[in-house]
Fold this protein.
Amino acid sequence: MGRILVLDIANEGLEKQRAKRKRVARMKKMIVYTIIIFMLLTLFVMTFLCIEVFSLQRQINELSSKIGDSHEVIGIEKMADDSTLDNVYRVDNIDNIAEEGDIPKVYLTFDDGPSENSDAILDILDDYNVKATFFVCGKDVETYGDVYRRIVDEGHSIGMHSYSHNYSKIYQSADAFADDFNKIHSLIAETTGVDTKLYRFPGGSSNKVSNTSMSVFIKYLNDHGIVYYDWNIASGDATSKAFSADELVDNVMNDVVKYKTAVVLLHDQADKSTTVEALPRLIEALNNAGVMILPITDDTTIIQHVSVVQ
């Protein structure tokens, strides 16, 4: 009897150990399965989010490349959906649509300079005897003073594109805008002798970055006799998409003949070497299309995305 009892106790102990091992094994499996499921769900979510991000980025690029046409509105339309554009209206440029027999006037405009690419751009323009318009920012005069002067000396138009190009500073308030304006105006006047009356808003007059109504800044320019120019054709060199030189040319040429007055947005920046590469091809394509390439002057038709209705 004693021996049997001992065996029973031993068997019972073995069963408990087996049961315990089974429970531990089940728990391990559950943990492993849980981890695997979590990892799969995480991978699925990350994949989904990546697809969404790429899709949104593509839409942003498409919109950005077409921003030059954002002003085309039939009639005057109040931009009531934008709190930063109180009392500002989209400009109706329907009269600017080219008709048969019209010879389009094309204005090549370069924002953000001077830069390391400025001399190369000016060399190309000189080679083709083409005059353009440079909306410049505030740069070190010791480094870029000759570029400011060369723009003027070689017959190009020079305009203001803010001193700092820092949206949060420029558009912080009316006083901040005025301070920035005075800095870039003085820099150009003191460096080149030109009292320029041309201005281009960083981001354009229809930008949605400013927390202050753009009407404040537009009225400031109007009150000081300054004419601001936007654009109706964007080359695409400002978007995050890396367009090739041929694509930049196509982006311009696909739309340039639609207008009597075409203001083309290009950029003079150190990282825009493709713009420099595209420029000779663009000029040749424009010449072949029979358009006139001109610098912005007092006689140029004003192209604006939005305006303050008086």
Q: What stands out?
A: The beta strands are 88-90, 105-111, 133-136, 157-160, 198-199, 227-228, 233-234, 261-267, 292-293, 306-308. Confidence is low (pLDDT under 50) at residues 60-83. Helices lie at 2-65, 118-127, 141-153, 167-170, 174-192, 214-223, 245-256, 273-288. The chain has eight helices and ten strands.
